[in-house]
């Protein structure tokens, strides 16, 4: 599809810096197509970076719409398996690389799908946009709040299309769209409280240093994260995420470590807190234009358990999982709405208002306001109005956005506004105190130590290439 394209990243950023320009969302600087114009060829050419679990899933989804031209993964066994499987499925063998930058250097690739661990998301995404690629990136998008700001800036400056993989916005039998529409249509009156149940997670025994598995480039897997030894216990995980150690600091289990992820708080919070904020308009991207920023104002850790001792927000040992295993967080939202994020109770979202309450998750949507829809259904087109157009799968929405050069349903600004709540909840637990948040300035009020957690230092040699 592509004819590519672009001036060098360095030249592009120098030009932006010289003029002080910030391009509007949806504008296009680099690419073979002008903003708003149809693609020269309907068949996209894409590549996936990071192939375990979600990376493999989104590749399969993209194959319905695109040619899979290349893969990158630091685990040679996983890379080889996916190359061969995809070659058989699409009748054309994709190229395989250990270094994702070889994908970004190619001029025939239109978009990249990022399924790498969370600590890699921002570096790969920013460099992909600066190389002229549109991006689909798995959730949670960032490891820190400041990374979210950087991604937003580069989306604005390059005009690239960027979809975050919060699939509940599109998929799951439209239950979540129905929930958002019901709230926006006033079916529970004025919203008073929202409870997001996102499950907890277990701690770990002491995990010893051991040999790095054959085929895994451990140093490259760590990337921007601090240098450390590979740790694992021999017992293997079953089911989803199988084929890897049950306890480790790498594949699948990376979610349990501050250095690479945010535990259940950002893993499942990226789904349910997203729907909650969407329903009450607390992540509406149009807020940027009208200057009326509505967001969290206070985050209070009511109860929580960290599996290891922390000092000044950092774990004092490095041989056990360190993300919160259980928690109840209270978040003060706009218009007097109370949000509770908890590891207890049912996984899903409970909306409570002055005129009723209902519960939604991936298996059901229940409550009297739902039952009342039989006699008083939502207006025709209510779900489409919430969604912003024709209801599609999440990947189809991304492909459509590439063709229209408009941002998709899970845009980076909406995602980051709700993910800030999850990041702040983790910071509040690590520091064991309430945090007051300025949603306009996007900083913690009167707490320099807490603000130091809004960013992170990238390991030398793995800084973002700007």
What does this entry show, briefly?
It is an enzyme of class 3 (hydrolase). Keywords: Glycosidase, Hydrolase. The chain is α/β, with parallel strands linked by helices and 466 residues long.
Strand order of the largest sheet: 15-14-13-7-12-11-8-16-17
Major sheet details: 9 strands, mixed
Give the N-terminus to C-terminus distance in angstroms: 26 Å
Determine the mean pLDDT.
Answer: 91
Q: List the domain count as a whole number.
A: 2
Number of strands: 17
Radius of gyration: 22 Å
Count of helical segments? 16
Q: What would CATH call the class of the largest domain?
A: Alpha Beta
CATH-defined architecture of the largest domain:
2-Layer Sandwich
Low-confidence stretches: 1-40
Shape: globular
By secondary-structure content and strand pairing, the structural class works out as: alpha/beta
Which percent range fits the helix content? 25-40%
Q: Give the amount of beta strand, in percent.
A: 15-25%
The CATH topology name of the largest domain reads Dihydrodipicolinate Reductase, domain 2
Outline the structure in words.
The protein is of the alpha/beta class and 466 residues long. It folds into two domains: 9-169, NAD(P)-binding Rossmann-like Domain (Rossmann fold), CATH 3.40.50; 171-391 and 411-466, Dihydrodipicolinate Reductase, domain 2. It contains 16 helices and 17 strands. It has helices at residues 9-19, 54-62, 76-90, 101-104, 118-130, 145-158, 175-184, 218-222, 263-267, 269-280, 287-290, 368-371, 382-387, 394-404, 412-431, 448-451, and strands at 44-49, 66-72, 95-97, 111-114, 134-137, 162-164, 191-197, 298-305, 310-311, 314-315, 326-332, 338-342, 348-353, 356-360, 365-366, 435-438, 443-444. The strands form three sheets. The protein has a nine-stranded mixed β-sheet. A six-stranded parallel β-sheet has the order 3-2-1-4-5-6, sandwiched between helices. Helix 5 runs parallel beside helix 6, helix 7 (175-184) runs parallel beside helix 10 (269-280) and helix 10 (269-280) crosses helix 15 (412-431). The longest helix is centred in the last third of the chain and has 20 residues, at 412-431. It is globular. One of its GO terms (molecular function) is alpha-N-acetylgalactosaminidase activity. Residues 60-165 form the Gfo/Idh/MocA-like oxidoreductase N-terminal domain. It comes from Rubripirellula obstinata. Keywords: Glycosidase, Hydrolase.
């Amino acid at each position: 599809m592509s004819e590519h394209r672009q001036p060098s990243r360095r030249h592009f950023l120098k030009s932006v810096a010289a003029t002080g320009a910030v391009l509007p969302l949806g504008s296009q600087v680099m690419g073979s197509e002008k903003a708003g114009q149809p693609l020269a060829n309907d068949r996209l050419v894409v590549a996936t970076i990071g192939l375990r679990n979600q990376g493999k899933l989104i590749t399969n989804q993209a194959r319905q719409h695109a040619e899979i031209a290349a893969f990158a993964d630091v685990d040679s066994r996983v890379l080889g398996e996916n190359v061969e499987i995809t070659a058989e499925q699409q009748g054309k063998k994709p190229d395989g690389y250990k270094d994702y930058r070889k994908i970004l250097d190619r001029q025939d690739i239109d978009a990249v799908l990022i399924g790498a661990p969370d600590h890699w998301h921002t570096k790969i995404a920013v460099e992909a946009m600066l190389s002229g690629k549109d991006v689909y990136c798995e959730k949670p998008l960032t490891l820190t709040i400041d990374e979210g700001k950087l991604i937003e800036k580069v989306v604005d400056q390059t005009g690239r299309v960027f979809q975050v993989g919060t699939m509940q916005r599109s998929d799951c039998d439209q239950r979540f769209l129905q929930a958002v529409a019901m709230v926006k249509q006033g079916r529970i009156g004025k919203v008073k409280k929202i409870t997001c149940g996102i499950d907890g997670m277990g701690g770990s025994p002491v995990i010893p240093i051991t040999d790095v598995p054959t085929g895994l480039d451990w140093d490259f897997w760590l990337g921007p994260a601090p240098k450390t030894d590979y740790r694992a216990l021999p017992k293997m995980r079953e089911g989803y995420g199988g084929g890897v150690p049950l306890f480790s600091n790498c594949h699948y289990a990376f979610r349990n470590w501050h250095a690479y992820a945010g535990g259940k708080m950002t893993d499942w919070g990226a789904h349910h807190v997203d729907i909650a904020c969407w329903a009450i308009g607390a992540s509406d991207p149009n807020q940027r234009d009208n200057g009326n920023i509505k967001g969290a104002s206070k985050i209070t850790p009511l109860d929580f358990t960290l599996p290891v001792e922390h000092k000044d927000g950092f774990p004092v040992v490095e041989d056990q999982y360190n993300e919160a295993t259980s928690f109840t967080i209270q978040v003060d939202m706009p218009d007097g709405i109370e949000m509770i994020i908890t590891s207890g109770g049912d996984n899903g979202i409970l909306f409570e208002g002055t005129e009723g309450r209902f519960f939604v998750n991936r298996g059901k949507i229940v409550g009297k306001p739902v039952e009342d829809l039989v006699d008083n259904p939502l207006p025709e087109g209510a779900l489409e109005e919430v969604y912003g157009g024709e209801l599609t799968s999440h990947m189809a929405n991304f492909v459509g956005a590439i063709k229209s050069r408009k941002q998709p349903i899970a845009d980076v600004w909406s995602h980051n506004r709700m993910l800030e709540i999850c990041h702040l909840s983790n910071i509040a637990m690590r520091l064991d105190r309430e945090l007051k948040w300025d949603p306009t300035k996007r900083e913690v009020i009167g707490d320099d130590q807490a603000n130091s957690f809004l960013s992170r230092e990238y390991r030398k040699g793995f800084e973002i290439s700007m």
